[in-house]
Amino acid sequence: MLTQTTPKDLTPTDLLDNFAAFVRLDTADGNAADDTVKTYACTVKQFFSWCHVQRLHPLDATRDDIKEYRRWLVEIQDYKCATIALKLTVVRRFYAGAVERGLILANPALGIKPPRENIDPAERINYLEEAEVIGLLASLPTENTIGGLRDRFLVAVMVLEGCRTVEMHRACIGDIIKRGSDIGIRVSGKRSRRIVPLTPDLAKLLNKYLNARKLSGEVLNGDTPLFIALDKRTYGGRLSRRSIQRVIDKYLRAAGLKEQPKKNKGKKPASFQEHQPSNGKKQHSSQSASAKSNRGETSEAVTRCNIKTFAVFSIRDSFKTH
């Protein structure tokens, strides 16, 4: 047990293992998602790597050390404020676990905040106009290959039904729900599960996509991913969230709704944003600050469509042409 171990004897691996256990017990009332545990582990590993370079044992870190780490995130890593906020939150949680287990007396990361963004909050509210959504759907592939059908269904269901990236990533064949002539998809996010009803056009497209996979010889079981990777290395595996984001970005750029990526010292995008369809009015996003960014950056999704207030009929007419 941690309480029977001398803190100085704990290696970074020991600390990581026990922090993972702490996250599973303490985060989300003991129901932490696997993605959360992985994110926390990767973030703490980065902090430990920084400590190693500084010849600093993580449990010996002071408030000044955490501030130096923050400066490193800002000046050397050039992370965005939302990303720095996430990383500092995880470090703070790591030390909270260490305090709870008696390894240290006080949390050195308490009260250390990320830099403030000099951005008008209104600029964070991103959305798509009706004409832009029509243009986006018009940019989708028309061929009935597995890849073409996958991309067409993925983008369309996210736009028209308001599904998130994580929900599409986790969806399996067994999550397809049929009730009479109605078809839906059971999706799960970070803290909730729901059934997304499909329009008749989307249901037909889903069937075409699944039939194409069956014709290729693939056996579809309940736990088979709904959206699969098609590259040689991971063919048939679950399409990752980053890959879903790349698919969305590809068609946003094709429709002229997103700038080409800019070189940023070889680092991957730090945060993602959602585009919201609108009928001429901005709709406020409910996502957390860590998922917000400008339209010119990578999007997490193209969704959050309010079907009741959004004029979708012309959009679906455009979609039918495919």
UniProtKB/TrEMBL annotation:
<dbReference type="InterPro" id="IPR013762">
    <property type="entry name" value="Integrase-like_cat_sf"/>
</dbReference>
<dbReference type="InterPro" id="IPR010998">
    <property type="entry name" value="Integrase_recombinase_N"/>
</dbReference>
<dbReference type="GO" id="GO:0006310">
    <property type="term" value="P:DNA recombination"/>
</dbReference>
<feature type="domain" description="Tyr recombinase">
    <location>
        <begin position="123"/>
        <end position="322"/>
    </location>
</feature>
<feature type="domain" description="Core-binding (CB)">
    <location>
        <begin position="10"/>
        <end position="99"/>
    </location>
</feature>
<dbReference type="InterPro" id="IPR044068">
    <property type="entry name" value="CB"/>
</dbReference>
<dbReference type="Pfam" id="PF13495">
    <property type="entry name" value="Phage_int_SAM_4"/>
</dbReference>
<dbReference type="InterPro" id="IPR011010">
    <property type="entry name" value="DNA_brk_join_enz"/>
</dbReference>
<keyword id="KW-0238">DNA-binding</keyword>
<dbReference type="GO" id="GO:0003677">
    <property type="term" value="F:DNA binding"/>
</dbReference>
<comment type="similarity">
    <text>Belongs to the 'phage' integrase family.</text>
</comment>
<dbReference type="GO" id="GO:0015074">
    <property type="term" value="P:DNA integration"/>
</dbReference>
<dbReference type="InterPro" id="IPR002104">
    <property type="entry name" value="Integrase_catalytic"/>
</dbReference>
<dbReference type="InterPro" id="IPR004107">
    <property type="entry name" value="Integrase_SAM-like_N"/>
</dbReference>
<dbReference type="InterPro" id="IPR050090">
    <property type="entry name" value="Tyrosine_recombinase_XerCD"/>
</dbReference>
<keyword id="KW-0233">DNA recombination</keyword>
<dbReference type="Pfam" id="PF00589">
    <property type="entry name" value="Phage_integrase"/>
</dbReference>
<keyword id="KW-0229">DNA integration</keyword>
<protein>
    <recommendedName>
        <fullName>Phage integrase</fullName>
    </recommendedName>
</protein>
<feature type="region of interest" description="Disordered">
    <location>
        <begin position="258"/>
        <end position="301"/>
    </location>
</feature>
